[in-house]
Amino acid sequence: MCLCLGGAKKKKKKKNNKKKKRVVQTEPPTIPISAFFPNKIYPEGELCEYKDDNLWRTTNEEKRALEKQNFDQYNDIRRAAEVHRQVRKYARRNIKPGMTMTEICEMIENGTRTLVEAKGFESGIGFPTGCSLNHCAAHYTPNAGDKTVLQHGDVCKIDFGVHVNGRIIDSAFTLTFDPVYDNLLAAVKDATNTGIREAGIDVRLGDIGAAIQEVMESYEVEIGGKTYQVKPIRNLTGHSIEQYKIHGTKAVPIVNNGDPTKMEEGDYFAIETFGSTGRGYVHHDKETSHYARVYDLPKIPIRLPRAKTLFETINREFGTLPFCRRYLDRLGEEKYLLALKSLCDTGHVADYPPLVDIKGSYTAQYEHTLVLRPTRKEVLSRGDDY
Ligand SMILES: [Co+2]
Binding of a divalent metal cation 2: at which residues (predicted)? Predict the structure, then answer.
C-alpha cells in the first residue's frame, strides 16, 4: 500500500450494482489462465535490480524503450508462468504416496493443457513431466505399463514445462513426505536461489557455479543415522533457453568450472541445481522416455519407411520441443520403438536417458526460469511456494 500525500479528495464512488465477478480456479484446475486476465496482460515475475556496474540500466530510457519492443514475448512467457504456478499449486497439494507415477504426470499434463489452452505450436506442454525418484536425478517419466507407485520415503523431483509461442517456462521442485530430507531440500533451494541472485548481465557462468557450490556444500543432512555433506551434482547444469529450444548454447554450472562465458542482455536462463547424498555425479541408466528432434538435422535421408512416417509425426506434433513415449501413445502411434531407435541412430532425434547417482543415494532439485531484461532481471516462474 502506498502513502497518499496531500489532500486528494475522495471521489464518491458510483454505486455499481453489478458485482464484479472474480474468477476462482477450480480443483482440479480447469479454467484457462486467459479467463483470469481479460485484458490479456499477464503478471510480471519477481523483479530484481541489477547490481553495481549495471544499476544504471533500471532507469535508462534507451533500455526501457527496448523492453517495450519485447513486451509480447515477455507477456507470452508470463502467461506460461502463471499456468505453471496454478498447476503446481494443485499438484503440490494433491500428489500423495500411493499414486502411480503415471497418475501424477497425467494430473500435471492435463492441468497444463487445459490452463494454457494447448493448440499446436501456439501453446502447450514445454517438455515431458519429470518425476525422477531418489537416486534418479532427472529425465525419468513413466513409459506405458510402468506401475511404479510413489512411496512415503521417496524424494520426487517434479520438473515440468509450459510454453506459449515457444517461450518456455522450465521450473522444478522436490516433493517429500518424510521430514528427514528437509535439510537436503533446504540446501538445494538455497543453492538455486543463490544462482538466481548471482545471475546478471556480464556475469561469468563459472562464478555462478562457484557461488552455488559454496552454498550447497555448507549443508549437511542426516539420513538413517548417517550424516552427509550435500554435494552438487557436478555434471548437471542449468541452461539458456531459446524459442522452441529448451537447451540453448550456454550451460550454467553448479560447481566452479572456471567457464569465462558471460550472461548477456536478453538471455533467458533456467537456473537449476541438484544436490545429492551420493557421489555428486550422474550416469545414464534404465529405460529412456525423453526424446527431442535435433535442431540442425543431418543431411542423410531416412530410409526406413516406418521411421519416415514417425519422423513426420514428431515434426508435426512437437517440432524441436522434447517429447516422451506417452505423448506418442496418446497420438495413436503404435509399434514405433524400432523406428524411434533408428531415428536416434541416424542423428535425427536425440534420446535423453534417465540420469542417476549411485543406488541408495537421494537427490533433490529446484529450478526457475528468468530473463535478463535490458533494465532488470525478472524471475518469471517465482511463486509464493518456491
Ligand atoms: Co531445465
Answer: 170, 239, 272, 367
367 annotated as a binding-site residue: yes
Residue 239 labeled ligand binder? yes
From 109, 190, 367, 378, active-site residue: 367
Give 367 Cα–ligand 1 centroid separation in angstroms: 7
**CATH fold label, 47-287+355-379:** Creatine Amidinohydrolase (3.90.230)
Residues 118-141 have a mean pLDDT of: 98
272 is catalytic: yes
Ligand 1 centroid vs 134 CA: distance in angstroms?
18
Q: Answer whether residue 253 shows pLDDT above 80.
A: yes
- What's the burial of 179, exposed, middle or buried (CB within 10 Å: 0-12/13-18/19+)? exposed
226, 176 Cβ separation under 8 angstroms: no
Q: Which CATH number applies to 290-352: 1.25.40.10, 1.10.760.10, 2.40.50.140, 1.10.10.10?
A: 1.10.10.10
**Length of the chain, in residues:** 386
Check the annotation: does 285 bind a ligand.
Answer: no
Nearest in space to 192 (alpha carbons), one of 238, 159, 160:
238
Confidence (pLDDT) at 22: 80
Q: Does 284 participate in catalysis according to the annotation?
A: no
Is 239 designated active site? yes
The whole-chain average pLDDT of the chain stands at: 95
Say whether 170 counts as a known binding-site residue.
Answer: yes
Q: What is the pTM of this model?
A: 0.94
- Measured in Å, residue 169 CA sits from the centre of ligand 1 at 9
Q: Which of 109, 159, 357, 378 is catalytic?
A: 159
Q: With contact defined as beta carbons under 8 Å apart, do 132 and 148 qualify? A: no
Q: How far is CA 89 from CA 36, 104, 168, 180, 286, in A?
A: 16, 13, 19, 23, 30
